[in-house]
């Protein structure tokens, strides 16, 4: 049994090494997202070959490999390898899938991108059980029975009842004498965070741009969940009007029409004011767009709203601009020109999937 566990642990380390080596490849693809659960993600690892044991005599009793040079392909019957022209009956090579905890995946991401741990700002005080059994109660399991208190109660009862004999100091506790250890419920500080994912779903944002946003949001959420015990995610989509949607709708919604970025910022600010006080929450808004906005006046309104309302309330505001054939890319230029000195504002340009790793690092590398 111990040998099996040791081999299993060794295999897990081999798998982790393979995933760690390919982590940058996973940063630019969306194949992990569909396999993601609440606590773990299923990752395909085609490079690992599992050994197989087959019973029976060897084909060559002398142990020689037969004719041919090293590296020559062989068919299943030991002859020369030939490509199959049609459907075959032989077993194929299957891709191995292993489950990896999201916490481990976040650790690999942090090591690969050299991300610092986040210092929480907001603190949410939640009722939680303390870690020490420093209380007493009259009932409980026998494993938590407090011998000293129980004996003391029994001794007091015996003396009060006049049955105590100093020559025969024998004390037998009864049920009323029992005392049990108990944990006291106390207020324990517990850091919480809320993530706002806002995305432009107007006609200029194509399928590839939305897929890039989907991949980036997955890795951002994976990292932030490793930093906070409690985390909530709010998904906001906007064209000329903004609305809150669920996760599936956020990543699959197809709409057309114009773009009014201020509608998303207004809805985000309203949620913060009504549900997520900065005193209690660490707040992370992420906005994704191709840089188009319906007017320069609305862009000025967005800059004012960011400077006066949103940035003072959040840990960090991140804007990711995805390059699109139909987008102007002007919004990032305007933000950098007006708010380039703001420490809590981070902007990033994404021309394609190859830029995702650098963009994720720019968003999460500040440690806020």
How would you characterize the overall build of this protein?
This protein has three domains: 1-49 and 95-114, no CATH class; 133-182, no CATH class; 191-364, von Willebrand factor, type A domain (Rossmann fold), CATH 3.40.50.410. Helix content is 35%, strand content 20%. It is flat, with a radius of gyration of 31 Å. Helix 3 (102-113) crosses helix 5 (207-227), helix 5 runs parallel beside helix 10 and helix 7 runs parallel beside helix 8 (296-310). The chain is α/β, with parallel strands linked by helices. The strands form four sheets. The protein has a six-stranded mixed sheet with strand order 9-8-7-10-11-12, with helices on both faces. The two termini are 46 Å apart.
Strand residue content: 15-25%
Point out poorly predicted stretches.
76-84, 124-129
CATH class of the largest domain, named: Alpha Beta
Biggest pleated sheet:
6 strands, mixed
| SSE order | HHEEHEEHEEEHEEHHEHEHEH
Helix tally equals 10
Distance between the termini: 46 Å
Mean pLDDT, all residues: 79
Task: Briefly note the structural class of the backbone.
Answer: alpha/beta
Q: Provide the domain count.
A: 3
The largest sheet has its strands arranged as: 9-8-7-10-11-12
Radius of gyration, in angstroms, nearest whole number:
31 Å
Give me some keywords for this one.
12 strands, 3 domains, 6-stranded mixed sheet, 10 helices, 368 residues, single chain, alpha/beta, Rossmann fold, 35% helix
């Amino acid at each position: 049994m111990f040998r099996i566990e040791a081999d299993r642990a060794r295999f897990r380390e081999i798998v982790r090494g393979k995933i760690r080596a390919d982590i940058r490849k996973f940063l630019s693809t969306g194949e992990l997202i569909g396999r993601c659960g609440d606590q773990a993600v299923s990752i395909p690892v085609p490079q690992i070959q599992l050994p197989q044991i087959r019973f029976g005599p060897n084909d060559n009793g002398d142990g020689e490999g037969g004719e041919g040079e090293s590296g020559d392909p062989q068919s299943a019957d030991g002859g020369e390898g030939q490509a199959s022209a049609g459907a075959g009956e032989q077993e194929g090579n299957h891709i191995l899938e292993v489950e990896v905890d999201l916490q481990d995946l976040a650790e690999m991401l942090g090591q690969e991108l050299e991300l610092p741990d986040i210092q929480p700002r907001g603190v949410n005080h939640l009722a939680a059980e303390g870690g020490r059994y420093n209380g007493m109660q009259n009932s409980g399991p026998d494993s938590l029975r407090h011998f000293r208190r129980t004996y003391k109660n029994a001794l007091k009862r015996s003396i009060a009842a006049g049955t105590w004999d100093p020559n025969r100091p024998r004390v037998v506790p009864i049920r009323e004498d029992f005392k049990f250890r108990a944990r006291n419920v106390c207020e324990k500080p517990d850091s919480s965070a809320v993530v706002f994912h806002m995305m432009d779903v107007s006609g200029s944002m194509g399928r590839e741009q939305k897929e890039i946003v989907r991949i980036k949001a997955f890795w951002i959420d994976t990292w932030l969940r490793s930093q906070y015990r409690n985390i909530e995610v709010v998904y906001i989509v906007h064209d000329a009007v903004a609305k809150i949607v669920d996760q599936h709708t956020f990543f699959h919604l197809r709409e057309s029409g114009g773009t009014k970025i201020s509608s998303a910022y207004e809805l985000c600010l309203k949620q913060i004011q009504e549900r997520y006080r900065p005193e209690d929450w660490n707040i992370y808004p992420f906005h994704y767009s191709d840089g188009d906005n319906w007017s320069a006046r609305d862009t000025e309104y967005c800059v004012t709203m960011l400077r006066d309302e949103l940035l003072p309330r959040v840990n960090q505001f991140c804007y990711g601009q995805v390059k699109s054939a139909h987008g102007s890319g002007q919004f990032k230029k305007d933000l950098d020109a007006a708010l380039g000195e703001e420490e809590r504002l981070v902007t990033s340009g994404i021309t394609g999937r190859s830029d995702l790793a650098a963009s994720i690092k720019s968003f999460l590398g500040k440690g806020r």
